[in-house]
Amino acid sequence: MSMQPVLAVNQVTKKMGNEQIIRSVSFNIERGAVFGLIGENGAGKTTTLGMICGLIRPTSGSVYIEGVPVSSRRKHVLRQVGALIEEPQFYKYLTGMEHLLYGSRLYGKVTTERLDEVLSLLKMKDFIHKKVGHYSLGMKKRLAIAQCLLHCPSLLILDEPTNGLDPGAMIEFREIVQSITSKFEISVLISSHHLKEIESVCDQFGLLQKGELTLLGGNKSSSSNSVVFVIEAKELDKALNLLQQQNYIFEPKLYDHDKITFKMDRTHYSSLLMLLSQVEVQSIKEKSFDLEEAYLELTRVDEWGGS
Question: What is the percentage of the chain residues whose pLDDT exceeds 70?
Answer without folding.
Answer: 87
